[in-house]
TrEMBL record:
GO MF terms held by the record: FAD binding; oxidoreductase activity
Range of residues in the leader sequence: 1-25
Cofactor: FAD
Keyword set, alphabetical order: Cell wall, Disulfide bond, FAD, Flavoprotein, Glycoprotein, Nucleotide-binding, Oxidoreductase, Secreted, Signal
Origin: domain of life: Eukaryota
InterPro entries from the UniProt entry: BBE, FAD-bd_PCMH, FAD-bd_PCMH-like_sf, FAD-bd_PCMH_sub1, FAD-bd_PCMH_sub2, Oxid_FAD_bind_N
Annotated protein name in UniProt: FAD-binding PCMH-type domain-containing protein
Species annotation: Dipteronia dyeriana
Cellular localization per UniProt: Secreted, Cell wall
Domain FAD-binding PCMH-type span(s) in chain numbering: 74-250
Pfam annotation, one family: FAD_binding_4
């Protein structure tokens, strides 16, 4: 359906009344709306546009933004936020942004660690295409699959699966407010990764808007592009509209536990032992370690919390733990039998007895200012190095480290099966975080601290390249510049995130988006026409 001329005039009049001084913003929005009227199949309500002059602008921008660092007044804001109501409006947004030369960012859940879905450090003006209204989920238990639109959260997906079956699940993220569109583009790991691999390993089809505005599925996009979007990082190849995922079997009863130990309770020795067994233990058992600085009175210590899901009964879990990790000292009273959907709530940090319906809210439990980094570990970190690490953590106000175990299915899938390459030989992944709450606080000290910590850990983690997880985006590794794409410069982060798969990603990008329309600070670059990459061996 095409906009009527009266409808367009009503919208334009409203926009002009809302903006008195923002001439450029109005001009961009005017042109965008007029273009959408040509290409969209359905009429678009004025409420789908939110400009900087709208009183609701800040709340809409904040609605799913996770890292408050990128909402500070000093950070560039979008000219407006467009929230399409159907696929054709996403198509029209791509076509019109391209025709008008408007830079766009795409947001599904707002969890990009460096705010790349709602902020831009290298290119202004820009707009946001927010997929928040595209969140339908259709679960088919008969063929063990589900279609989920990009704006839905993984928590919503988990709920809808459990609504249909108590013995089906999906192996994606631990945080329940992740937008599924962007989450899977980076890999999507969770508590069942050792049993079933990543979320991206369990995608069987997709719908994507390409640079020409076409909607493509797996058959029409071809296997190269389908390969690239499952783990090759978000917003480089097109806009994900929806994923078709493979459901996996889960027991009717699973078991969860959290066991904590301090330094004074031989916490360092226990963690050293965990490093030796976590990737080799029964693949039904996922034990991550959450490391924090805690205090009793004026005395600080390091607390390591072993937070776990076991796909089975407590009786079977206790046997596995005794056989493989007796040093943990796990007891029946440490454990809780529950359903898979309630284990999702437990791992996500919700209080006991929280109803699963809270997952339908799609809201994050935690929003703060933060900086994060990541590493992959191939050899156990020596106890002496752990003791030095504890000293580093003690220097910071609110540090956090999380170690996630690999092994199991993660070791059985080839590094090149999808772009996510961190597979066999990886013992565990580390996430480093520093957080703060005060907008007026000097972030420099926190940024400098986490960089020192990262440098300290260099000798104990993967090398050549030093691996990193693309969903824990880190702009310290390097950035694209406006109007400049370089394979060599992008290699600084590309090989860390994707290893040798980076070269194939560049070739796919060059074929499907040679003019680099879909771009951001760490997007995959296309090669210049009729050129080949210059390879450097480090």
């Amino acid at each position: 359906m095409i906009f009527s001329s009266n409808y367009i005039l009503r919208i334009l009049s409203s926009v002009l009344l809302l903006s008195v001084s923002g001439t450029s913003s109005v001009s961009i929005l005017d042109n965008f709306i007029q273009c959408l009227s040509v290409y969209s199949q359905h009429s678009i309500p004025f409420s789908a546009f939110c400009t900087q002059k709208n009183t609701s602008f800040s709340s809409v921008l904040l609605s799913s933004a996770q890292n408050l660092r990128y909402l500070k007044p000093s950070v560039s804001k979008p000219e407006f936020i467009f929230t399409p109501l159907d696929e054709s409006q996403v198509q029209a947004a791509v076509i019109c942004s391209k025709e008008l030369g408007i830079h766009l960012r795409v947001r599904s859940g707002g969890h990009d660690y460096e705010g790349l879905s709602y902020a831009s450090e290298i290119e202004t003006p820009f707009i946001i295409v927010d997929l928040a209204k595209l969140r339908s989920i259709t679960v088919s238990i008969d063929d063990n699959s589900a279609w989920v639109q990009a704006g839905a959260t993984n928590g919503e997906l988990y709920y809808r699966i459990a609504e249909k079956s108590k013995i089906h699940g999906f192996p994606a993220g631990l945080c329940s407010s992740l937008g599924i569109g962007g989450h899977i583009t980076g890999g999507a790991y969770g508590t069942m990764m050792r049993k079933y691999g990543l979320g991206a390993d369990n995608v069987i089809d997709a719908r994507i808007v390409d640079v020409t505005g076409r909607v493509l599925d797996r058959a029409s996009m071809g296997e190269d592009l389908f390969w690239a979007i499952r783990g090759g990082g978000g917003a480089s190849f097109g806009i994900i509209l929806s994923w078709k995922i493979r459901l996996v079997p889960v027991p009717a009863t699973v078991t969860v536990f959290t066991v904590s130990r301090t330094q004074e309770q031989n916490g360092t020795k226990l963690l050293h032992k965990w490093q030796q067994v976590a990737d080799k233990i029964d693949e039904n058992l996922f034990i991550r370690v959450i490391i924090q600085v805690t205090s009793t009175g004026k005395q600080k210590t390091i607390t390591t919390s072993y937070n776990a899901l076991f796909l089975g009964s407590v009786q079977r879990l206790l046997q596995v733990a005794q056989d493989s990790f007796p040093e943990l000292g796990l007891t029946r009273k440490d454990c809780m039998e529950t359903s898979w959907i309630k284990s999702v709530l437990y791992i996500a940090g919700y209080p006991t007895n929280t109803p699963p319906e809270i997952l339908l809210q799609g809201k994050s439990l935690f929003k703060n200012y933060f900086k994060a980094k990541s590493d992959f570990v191939k050899e156990p970190i020596p106890e002496t190095a752990l003791e030095g690490l504890w000293k580093k953590l003690m220097e910071e106000d609110s540090p956090l480290m999380i170690m996630n175990p690999y092994g199991g299915m993660m070791s059985k899938i080839s590094e090149s099966e999808i772009p996510f390459p961190h597979r066999k030989g990886t013992l565990f992944m580390i996430q480093y975080l520093t957080t703060w709450q005060d907008v007026n606080e000097d972030e420099t000290k926190h940024m400098e601290w986490i960089r020192r910590l990262y440098n300290y850990m260099g000798p104990y983690v993967s090398m050549f390249p030093r691996g990193a997880y693309v969903n824990y985006r880190d702009l310290d590794l390097g950035m694209n510049k406006k109007n400049e794409t370089s394979f060599i410069k992008a290699s600084a982060w590309g090989f860390r995130y994707f290893k040798d798969n980076f070269e194939r990603l560049v070739k796919v990008k060059t074929r499907v988006d040679p003019d680099n329309f879909f771009r951001h600070e760490q997007s995959i670059p296309p090669l210049p026409l009729e050129s080949e990459p210059e390879y450097c061996v480090a």
